[in-house]
Specification:
Elements: E1 17-20, E2 22-23, E3 42-43, H1 46-56, E4 65-69, H2 78-91, E5 97-102, H3 104-120, E6 123-131, H4 135-140, H5 147-159, E7 163-170, H6 178-192, E8 196-201, H7 209-216, H8 224-236, E9 242-245, E10 256-259, H9 263-276
Parallel strand pairs: 1-4, 4-5, 5-6, 6-7, 7-8, 8-9
Antiparallel strand pairs: 2-3, 9-10
Length: 290
């Protein structure tokens, strides 16, 4: 497999074949993200992709899931993407699901007709980075989209019959925008009603624009317990039918809640943690990671 640069995947794709069909991220302007800064975005040729699939096909009998990287691989033009999907099905007879990262622009550019076509070809899940429902925060971190576009994109994925997994970021609003960020993010999750939500905590990486904001004193990261309070506010304002996770390695308080069934019990747990303020209840700093 000819991977270029560092490869990223969702935790749920740990047992998938990672197939890099784009290099980097077509947007690559988010102030908090260090992931693709060393790459110039390009779409791989079908010949490059085909060679990787052919190499992996020697294990074709064992491959049931494939994840298409890099950052927003859904941006690949439909004819090329369908060519890849068709070849995957040809080479991997036991393939059950293909997953892909996307942004709102890529989803909306595809449209529901093309998304349905991809669903029929085996695309089973789209991972959409929302980060926040607060437009002030989205603009500040240079997300390059709007609340309304994110909602339209999320709904379009679900209407096409594809599972929707959304990522949101605790702490991305900073200490002074924490409550607004949490409430607005709960609202956008309610409107989108994703199948899965992964709440990660912002980890500041040197060299990113948001790191420079902190160095200048323009951005203050919430404390661990303030992040947990933010999580509670977010869940309290979320009405959805799916799984809400905060068990990523970046988080201080791992949570897995089936919504709406586990909502009240989860809020009770968060309240107890915030009441006790016992650091031993939190994931140790040395265990946290991107």
């Amino acid at each position: 497999m000819k991977y270029e640069g560092t490869i990223y995947r969702p935790p749920s794709e740990a047992d998938s074949l990672i197939l890099q069909i784009t290099v980097g991220c077509s947007h690559n302007k988010c102030t908090f993200c260090p992931s693709y800064k060393d790459k110039k975005f390009r779409i791989k040729t079908f010949q490059e992709i085909k060679e990787d699939i052919d190499e992996a096909s020697q294990f074709g009998w064992a491959i049931e899931k494939v994840f298409l990287a890099d950052g927003d691989a859904l941006i690949v033009p439909q004819p090329r993407l369908m060519e890849v999907m068709d070849y995957l099905r040809e080479k991997f007879p036991h393939l059950r699901r293909v997953g892909i990262y996307a942004n709102a622009k890529g989803v909306l550019k595809k449209g529901e007709e093309h998304l349905r076509e991809l669903k029929e070809a085996g695309l089973g899940i789209i991972y959409l980075g929302v980060e926040s429902g607060d437009q002030v925060v989205l603009d500040r971190v240079r997300k390059g989209t709007t609340y309304e576009k994110l909602v339209r994109a999320g709904r379009m994925v679900k209407e096409a019959g594809i599972k929707l997994s959304v990522t949101v970021l605790l702490g991305i609003g900073g200490r002074h925008r924490s409550k607004e960020h949490a409430i607005a993010t709960g609202r956008i999750l309610t409107e989108m009603d994703p199948d899965y939500v992964g709440a990660l905590s912002l980890i500041i990486v040197p060299g990113t624009p948001i790191y420079e904001e902190i160095e200048r004193g323009d951005f203050v990261l919430p404390s661990p317990f303030e992040l947990i309070e933010e999580l509670g506010i977010m869940i309290a304002h979320t009405e959805m039918h799916g799984l809400f996770f905060s068990n990523h390695a970046s988080n201080y308080l791992p949570i897995k809640a089936r919504m709406p069934k586990d909502k009240e019990a989860t809020l009770k747990l968060i309240h107890e943690v915030l009441t006790r303020r016992d650091p031993s209840l939190l994931r140790p700093e040395y265990f946290r990671a991107l």
